[in-house]
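Protocol step 4 of 6: structure prediction from sequence.
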Amino acid sequence: MLKFRWLVALLLLAPFTVAQDTGDEGGQATEAKPEAKKEKEDEAVQVPTPKNPVAVIKTSMGEIEVELFEDECPKTVANFLGLATGTKEFTDAKTGEKVKRPFYDGLIFHRVIKDFMIQGGCPLGTGTGDPGYKFEDEINASDLGLDKLKAVEGGRPHPWLQIRSQQDFQRKVLLPLVKQMGYTTQAEVQANMAVIQQKLQAALPTLTVKDVLQNLGYKYDTDHTSHAPVKGSLAMANSGPNTNGSQFFINLKDTPWLTGRHTVFGKVLKGMDVVEKIGEVQVGEGAKPVEDVKIVSIRPVESEGK
């Protein structure tokens, strides 16, 4: 394996300002603190696109009505509704048996971070559970503009990459580039240091945020449009590229640093006040509410003309 210590000499940039990592490990979307900006005020009630399905997330603290972006994220929406209604088979996390029943009924919001997001859909209530399978992301990075954002500019990595140290920069940016050059061992890197430095100097100025995320394993869809993760967005939680299952989160604020990492498959139409109320509950270790906030049910709303 190529070790980080051999990449220290490849760090050609001036010292840069670092930011908190998104830390999308363990099926979680993680808070970061990008540059402060004024958040947009959500409308009290949003109008859904007529062709999109609508679902009601009934919780122990009230109801949340969401529009689901079926055209943009057909697999994700089908998975969400299939689990919600009990038509999609999954593996019971406790018994290991294949079953069909409304998956979300009785689960909790296991992770709540004020002014960031509320997360649910884990059958174990810990953030580590899933339905026994994983499926791919449905994200169009170009539609979200990630191909227009330089990964490194003015000697600093783009804040959406959430690079917090030089080692982080090496792992996320340099190491994948070096591997693309065909160097996979310490000996190869040491023997070809001058060539590698020259190639990196040529590559870094044109590298985009999309390029970096693709080098980390994200695969993007170009057949559909995508929504950015803004306040009120309904998105899939994951542990990295193409690791979606059942867990989802609803944004309490705009989270631009999550762009390109999580499939945004819906938005809140009504009940944002309920989302915000859940976001205010007292939490303990791991941001888990001290008192359970339950998902009573998730069901589609039947509309005329559908």
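Step 5 (inspection) to follow. The two ends are 54 Å apart (CA to CA).
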